[in-house]
Amino acid sequence: MFGVPKRIGHVILRDPVIPPGHNWLDVLEVEDGEHPRFMSWISDTGMHRFYVPAPVGTGFSTESPLYAGHWRPSVDAASKLPWPEPAPDWRERASFLGRLDQVEAAAVRITYRGLSHCRLCGRVNGHEALRSARWEWPAGFRHYIADHDVRPSIEFAHFITRA
Predict the structure, then answer these.
(1) DSSP codes joined into one string, the chain
(2) Are 14 and 36 in the same domain?
(3) How far apart are CA 88 and CA 86, in angstroms?
(4) Are residues 70 and 49 in the same domain?
(5) pLDDT band at residue 16, thresholds of 50, 70 and 90?
(6) What range does the domain containing 115 cover?
(7) pLDDT top residue among 41 and 103
(8) Residue range 144-151: average pLDDT?
(9) Whose CA is closest to 99, among 153, 146, 53, 162?
(10) Domain count of the fold of the chain
């Protein structure tokens, strides 16, 4: 008998059959200890599950996703997530936004239920995430950069400018 699965994160499955951006799998852990982990993938045709009874380091190849533009719920919330901080002196903002538009036009869009609100001004800020290569960011991340002068991480900025 299986316990209740708990979502513990994502991995990206390196499989040429699954289109890029759609190959992100939820890693779920089963609490009964009998079956340590399984991954699930939801496709356009329904849910497919991959059970992973393999020791660490064996089986198929995965990599960890990278995230940008995900914020804690409030400035004083206890969370490992950052808070959007303006950096008005960032000189590459305009060129970054131009390149971000190009990358977002080609990115895979993942639609979510509900709406996200800007942590700084409260406006409705989208209901989608964008995926390209190993990165995922909310569609509203552009609003933080363009309207609130928030600077993305160096790693994400390098990804966008070199994509």
Answers:
(1) ----EEEEEEEEE--TTSPTTS-EEEEEEETTSSS-EEEEEEETTEEEEEE--SPTT-SS-EE--EE-S---SSTT---SS----B-TT-TTHHHHHHHHHHHHHHSEEEE-SS--B-TTT--B--SEEEEETTEEEETTHHHHHHHH-BPPPHHHHHHHHH-
(2) yes
(3) 6
(4) no
(5) confident
(6) 66-162
(7) 103
(8) 98
(9) 162
(10) 2
**pLDDT tens, 50-67?**
555 555 555 566 788 999
91 and 50 within one domain:
no
Question: What is the model's pLDDT at position 112?
Answer: 86
Q: How confident is the model at residue 24 (pLDDT cuts 50, 70, 90)?
A: confident
Tokens at residue 21, please?
């951006």
The residue behind tokens 């950052």 is: 82
Choose the final residue of a domain: 48, 63, 78. Answer: 63
The token pair that represents 35 in the structure block: 């079956």
Q: Among residues 45, 63, 81, which one ends one of the domains?
A: 63
